[in-house]
């Protein structure tokens, strides 16, 4: 009996797209005709992926992730091919390939940069990438393959259980409670919001980002790393932690630039630089270049997340992704102004993060939490007004929420105190 793979076409197309991108990097130069033709083929593949998203099996969150991944991958491929413009000489300089390699070897070298959007181990490695936990080795560079896979699997299991328990609890909200706390228009209520509505805003804005969204994204990353490393297609050192410590998120800039995953950063900054530095040729350093660059980077992120909304079944007119992500550029402007005023007041202009006193970090965390509480509902509520599962299969519906949470908490404790949890 033939197996119907058409529902998985969005994922399967990633294989030819990745290999074609790697082949173009390994054999062509920027703006060469073969590279341009190859890019047109990549656009066609992305179109085929996009049109198949409604057929992707699983809950809406899976289709949304597939949609945003399709958009992000094409933007990243464009960055590699034309914006950063990596060519065979760059691969040799970065020791991803050498002249003695055959074509397959050079393509394999290029594949490392195609698959690793943070540029791990190269001069393109994005700022803010966390090091490997000291649990592996003192130098944090070369974890043993099977120790790495085993640790990732252990963490992945309790993350799945925790997400399942949270998702099951959230799905249990009554229609009346959901409409009252997160119904259309409630995201715009501030002075007239009820205590229950403010509590929901806080849960979605703070707990949602620091815990639920973080674990949802991190668990996906760990699953991919287990497959890639476990099957021998990649090495552990190319898979450092996806998130840094939440205690680095005492500013909005620190939330996105240090704590949050940096997998989109190279793409976002390259596209922003194309406009501010290549097209507009704005002077550097300058305030207009700095903050326009910031706004454009968040705008590209907004575009990617609009794709996530569309894939999840949220119509374009109801998507709050662009407003949400662009708001952080203005939030950073506010905190930069406050920090500059503080530096002028105190005369301390060289303070490092580790020298920031605890009370100021606490105040900063309150500021970040307040900002997320206010702006997140504009992005999240359209997705949350209909009950949706965060995991493909619920164990909590069989065993109950309390046992699952208990196992997850034990897993967290073991990770923290016995498995060197630094993520």
UniProtKB/TrEMBL annotation:
Location of this chain's protein in the cell: Membrane
Keyword Zinc-finger: no
Upper classification of the organism: Eukaryota, Fungi, Dikarya, Ascomycota, Pezizomycotina
Family under the similarity heading: Belongs to the wax synthase family.
Top-rank taxon, per record: Eukaryota
This protein's name: Wax synthase domain-containing protein
Wax synthase domain segment(s): 239-326
Organism: Paecilomyces lecythidis
A Pfam entry, by short name: MBOAT_2
Keyword annotations of the record: Membrane, Transferase, Transmembrane, Transmembrane helix
Keyword Transmembrane helix: yes
Membrane topology: Multi-pass membrane protein
